[in-house]
Write a structure and sequence with these properties.
Layout (H helix, E strand, L loop, with lengths): L1 H22 L5 E8 L4 E10 L2 E8 L5 E3 L1 E4 L39 E3 L5 E8 L17 E5 L16 E6 L18 H11 L1
């Protein structure tokens, strides 16, 4: 009888642990709903915490065939049609833009993605040095950030955003970002460049 009670107690404890895990927020993963400028849902982006960064599995349709720039932007807000509410690139270290830049890249800089002949994309990328947990490079801190797909291609060098073209698809990385609270004005992406020039001339 005592052994049976012990088994029931262990089973209850395991169920409690399982249920508590379901109710707690998951800091290691998040799934974004991706929307175009008309407000239509065009896919998802699944984020997972990994060693040294965050992996992003992008599944989106409705794009023009070919390569498109994709970046993490500094604010968790996607107001169409131009998505300018998302601000500039997520750049907590104040670096230059571009994966080919010696003084870069932004944390939010990512390789271009390629849409097939039907305009569909299914690719996995890594946001290096980012995290879904707490910290300076957190994608979910404060009001969160956003994942933006552009109409054009990121050339990997041009400031401040690689001549990537219009913002055509957006997904919010933090749920708190759509609370309707007023956002700060976008940061100046060239501010660090001017500071760097002054130091060189000084």
């Amino acid at each position: 009888m005592r052994r049976r009670n012990k088994k029931l107690w262990m089973l209850s404890l395991m169920m409690l642990f399982f249920l508590s895990g379901c109710l707690l927020p998951h800091e290691n993963s998040e799934t974004l709903e991706m929307y175009n400028a008309d407000g239509d849902r065009v896919g998802t982006a699944r984020l997972n915490e990994t060693d040294g960064g965050v992996s992003v599995n992008v599944e989106v349709e409705g794009l023009s065939p070919g390569f498109h720039a994709i970046h993490v932007h500094e604010y968790g807000k996607c107001e169409g049609p131009d998505f300018s509410s998302s601000g500039n690139h997520f750049n907590p270290d104040g670096k230059d833009h571009g994966l080919m830049q010696t003084d870069g890249p932004h944390v939010g800089d990512l390789p271009n993605i390629e849409a097939d002949a039907d305009g569909a994309v299914q690719e996995e990328l890594i946001i290096n040095e980012a995290t879904l947990k707490k910290g300076k490079n957190s994608l979910t801190a404060d009001n969160g950030t956003s994942l933006i797909i552009h109409d054009g291609v990121d050339d990997g060098m041009s400031q401040p955003a690689g001549n990537s073209g219009d913002r055509i698809v957006c997904g919010v990385i933090s749920g708190d970002s759509q609370s309707g609270e007023e956002q700060d004005a976008p940061t100046d992406p060239t501010e660090n460049n001017d500071k760097q020039k002054n130091e060189e001339n000084g």
